[in-house]
Amino acid sequence: MKLAICNELFEGWDIGDVFKCAAELGYDAVEIAPFTLCDSVVEVTPVERERIRHAAEEAGIEIAGLHWLLVSPKGLHINHPDATLRQKTRDYFLALIRFCSDIGGRVLVLGSPNERSTVPPHTLKDTWNYSLETFKECAAYAGENNVILCLEPLLSKSTDFINNPSEAVQMIQEVNHPNFRLIVDVYSSSCEKLDIPAEIRRFGDYIEHIHSNDDNGYCPGSGNADYPGIIQALKEIGYEGYLSTEVFDFEPDPETIARQSIEFLRSVL
Fold this sequence. Notes:
Layout lengths: L1 E5 L8 H11 L3 E4 L13 H14 L2 E5 L16 H20 L4 E4 L13 H21 L3 E4 L13 H11 L4 E6 H6 L4 H7 L4 E6 L14 H10 L5 E4 L8 H15 L1
Parallel strand pairs: 1-2, 1-8, 2-3, 3-4, 4-5, 5-6, 6-7, 7-8
């Protein structure tokens, strides 16, 4: 297993400085939220993409991939009743896939609760079918670009669409593409009262990525999540991907959060 840190907690930092800090603390990789770099990845020139990739290589750090994919540009929605908006969102997903590949990333986390929830007069079945259509197209393009799309079950207070691994795996099976996989987020899973080690064992064949945080939305080890059990289950399924720390409280400062997180994860690994 490799350890990664999400970059949005380093508010205002140049991405190259984030890479250096993460490497100095002992992380293997950084996971990037595109909105921290630009409003739209379409704006990122080939020269800037190469700069990002080179900065990571120079720091001796991997780029795990991307998450918080649809925070910007504003107004996108995966399964909106408006076909033009769905098409616009699909096109931006394709741009994100290309961007991830260009900078040397591996995974794209499909979270974005506000941009995937059911929009009236749609039913959940409509939402499912339009999402399936989008995901199939994007998975095929991900395969062409050697990256993996990871569908993230999110807590039900954030979205009504795909709240647990069982629902996510049903979608993954229907998409039926090797570049469309599952991410398990410890915070969301805890909020849904799931037995996370049991979920990992049950769906181990589909898991590509892990977001390591805790049931309080803060550093792994700061709450009540069963990390010894989670790590044991990941070892049992032969998981070799990233444990990528994502927190929702940036106090007291990014270096302290990053240091506490890696020290804890190392202790349980």
